[in-house]
Write a structure and sequence with these properties.
Number of helices: 6
Distance between the termini: 30 Å
Helix content: 25-40%
Largest sheet: 3 strands, mixed
Order of helices and strands: EHEEHHEHEEHH
Length: 138
């Protein structure tokens, strides 16, 4: 089974030049703690609610004027839409992440995949093994 068979296709994202305030508003509206960051539909980073608070609000950044690109993490992990689910689950376990942006081979953002998606729609054993690895103390 391929990732494109189980991923969330309607994922919310934010453009790199948007404000932290808009990012926080989108996170609240969508009930998520992280957003993929795009520039011209290409994945360029991730921003989390923690990034906004710790690297923004805590150091008195103006959330209306500070751009998402100023605080985002650019070394973002991702998977390809044509990757095998088992391979992605193994990678998630090794990297200790619970969700990944999904891109095509040109890095165009297509959606998101989570351990929940893998557990719900694919092999429960792949998700269980990944969760076990993620939860294990380093």
């Amino acid at each position: 089974m391929k990732i494109h068979d189980i991923m969330h296709k309607d994922c919310c994202y934010i453009e790199a030049d948007e404000s932290l305030q808009l990012a926080a508003t989108k996170m609240q509206r969508e009930d998520v703690g992280a957003l993929p960051v795009a520039r011209n539909d290409k994945l360029v980073g991730m921003i989390t609610d923690r990034d906004i608070v710790v690297r923004g609000v805590a150091v008195n950044k103006d959330v209306r004027r500070t751009k998402v690109s100023d605080l985002m993490s650019s070394g973002v992990l991702y998977c390809f839409d044509d990757d095998e689910v088992e391979k992605v689950a193994e990678n998630m376990a090794q990297q200790k992440v619970r969700r990944l942006p999904v891109v095509d081979r040109e890095k165009k953002l297509l959606g998101m995949v989570s351990l929940g998606d893998i557990a719900w729609r694919a092999s429960g054993s792949a998700a269980g093994e990944a969760l076990s690895q993620i939860s294990r103390a380093a």
